[in-house]
Design goal:
The chain is an alpha/beta fold. Helices cover 41% and strands 17% of the residues. The chain has one domain: Alpha-Beta Complex (Spore Coat Polysaccharide Biosynthesis Protein SpsA, Chain A). One of its GO terms (molecular function) is dolichyl-phosphate beta-D-mannosyltransferase activity.
């Protein structure tokens, strides 16, 4: 059995999912994959089901009733991975913005170098983003700086969604109390690992914008991240008291 599983949330990723799955399974280190699909109208789940016979015992699918949010998809996947006794649990986008080859680097950061959480970081060594308009690069970079100042986390890419967690981190966090469902979910998970003194490291990666399918970014997701961070920090201070 593989020690690591990659959780890939999907909603209308029919153009990307097969190629991504094949890329991951072609890596030298063997990982399992769990696709969490939110009832994609483009039949992403059906494509995954067809591939399951080819990758029997390594490719898994969880289908949900509708579009319930990125954060809840990952929480669903985390609980599934813990129940199936995986030691290393990854977050990864379905759109090839995260390079599958970097999975091994994240894994090694946790398995060999002592990290509890390894973040595939766009900003650890400057700005490593391809194919984004400058306005979006600036927004993302400033958001990470803002979160870093508010929370006190020594993390350059606080909104990153390419991550490896050791099992003990997910077991320690109360997953049922994670509040955010959009991209602020990524901030909340890092912040809660931070205040519990888990060792968090950043692994520099190059982030490339999707070339197929459509982005799920929205103004509501951005506002959740901006205003939610302040509430999250304040609650942590009151809990300490």
């Amino acid at each position: 059995m593989s020690h690591g599983i990659i959780i890939i949330p999907t909603y209308n990723e029919i153009e990307n999912i097969e190629r991504l799955i094949r890329n991951v399974f072609s890596l030298q280190r063997k990982f399992h994959i769990l696709v969490v699909d939110d009832n994609s109208p483009d039949h992403t789940a059906a494509k995954v089901k067809k591939l399951q016979s080819e990758f029997f015992g390594a490719l898994f699918l969880e289908e949900r009733r509708g579009k319930l949010g990125l954060g809840s998809a990952y929480i669903h996947g985390f609980k599934w991975a813990l129940a199936h006794e995986y030691e290393y649990v990854f977050e990864m986008d379905a759109d090839f913005s995260h390079n599958p080859n970097d999975l091994i680097r994240l894994y090694n950061a946790c398995s060999r170098k002592g990290a509890d959480v390894a973040i595939g970081s766009r900003y650890a060594t400057g700005v490593n983003v391809i194919n984004w308009p400058m306005s979006r690069v600036l927004l993302s970079w400033l958001a990470s700086k803002y979160v870093r100042v508010i929370t006190g986390m020594n993390i350059h890419d606080t909104t990153a969604g390419f991550i490896c967690y050791k099992r003990k981190v997910l077991e320690t966090l109360d997953l049922d109390k994670i509040q955010f469902v959009g991209y602020a979910f990524q901030i909340e998970m890092k912040f809660k690992a931070h205040i519990l003194n888990f060792k968090i490291v950043e692994v520099p990666v190059i982030f490339s914008d999707r070339t197929k399918g459509t982005s799920k970014m929205s103004s509501g997701i951005i506002s959740e991240a901006v205003f939610g961070v302040i509430n999250m920090k304040l609650k942590s201070l009151f809990n300490k008291r």
